[in-house]
Amino acid sequence: MATPAKEFAGGAGNTVIGPSILISGKLTGDEDLTVRGRVEGELTLTNTLIVEPSGVVKANVAVKNAIVSGVVVGNINATESVELTKEGRMVGDIHSPRVIIVDGASFRGRVDMGEVEPGRVPSERPARPLLRPAVRAVAPPKPAAPRPAEEKAKPAIKPVPPPPPPAARAEGKAPPAGAKPPVPPAPPLLAEAGKKKVVVKKKAK
Amino acid sequence: MANTVIGSSIVIDGEISGDEDLVIQGTVKGKISLKESLFVEGSGVVEADIETQNVEIAGRVTGNIVASDKVELKTDCRVVGDIKAPRILIADGASFKGNVDMDIKER
Predict the structure, then answer these.
(1) Whole-structure pTM over 0.90, yes or no?
(2) Is the same domain home to A122 and A184?
């Protein structure tokens, strides 16, 4: 070909809108699109839209995935996920089954994840713990918000394991056999100690 | 180094403007105005009026081209429209239909 070098330099099937470029109109495609400049109008992709920090998109967007580190004004309709990174700013509505809003992102608009069934929450743990605190951090700016979302998620989980041991000890006082299954090797000793004390008190009486 | 690339599956219907090089592998309809170079690659289809400094065409262009420096029609390109530029190169194998204006005033 006459321009083999340029074909390689351009990258195979990867579209980049450079920082000084303005596209106004309708943009459609079946590949990933990286926006460092401005796109205005309508944007439809069957793949991923990446709006970099210098990028500005003022358009109604329909994509599979969207990662917003720049500015988006308009509605995003994603079939898979929308992620607002810490540098992302967005005004508009998001319609997507997965929405990730990271601490530091600014967003004004509606989020619609489709049918949110209560049963679906535990099955999507990897996404949910990140997502819930992040959404709260954006809506009411609490002082605790600056903490990473993961830290928040962990304390929420920790309170769950502690309850079993007290329950096991309580059970240990009456039926020691019941205390053994739920508690690992060490706790049974404690449970037995508790039992002995009870016995001693009874003898004292 | 061109940092803007319109990939082969992309279709843009509208206007593109900017101050940097633009590589088109996909389809652009409407208008293109740049202050740098435009490259229409073999897979590129442009149905637009073009206004740039340099244009290199290896694909298909339908529309009028005005360049402040140079227009280059490469082998296997298909261009329909008028070209206006001080330097115009047409390679062997290129197909072109339209007027050429190199803007010769005096000399």
Answers:
(1) no
(2) no
Residues 6 or more apart in contact with residue B46 via CB below 8 angstroms: B24, B27, B28, B29, B32, B40, B59, B60, B61, B62, B63
Q: Is A20 on the interface with B (CB under 8 A)?
A: yes
- Nearest chain B alpha carbon to A41: B14
Task: Check whether residue A146 and residue A168 sit in a common domain.
Answer: no
Name the closest residue on chain A to residue B17, using Cα atoms: A22
Calpha distance B3→B15 (Å, rounded): 18
Total structural domains in chain A? 2
Candidate from B10, B19, B75 with C-beta closest to A31: B10
pLDDT tens per residue, range B36-95: 999 999 999 999 999 999 999 999 999 999 999 999 999 999 999 999 999 999 999 999
Choose among B18, B56, B91: nearest Cβ to A18: B18
Is A180 found in the same domain as A88? no
CB count, 10 Å around CB of B4? 26
| Residues A70, A75, A77: CA angle, nearest 5 degrees | 100
Interface test with A, best of B1, B9, B34, B57 (most A CBs within 10 A): B9
Contact A134, A101 (CB under 8 A): yes
Nearest-CA distance A36 → chain B (Å): 9
| Distance from the Cα of residue B56 to its chain's centroid | 6
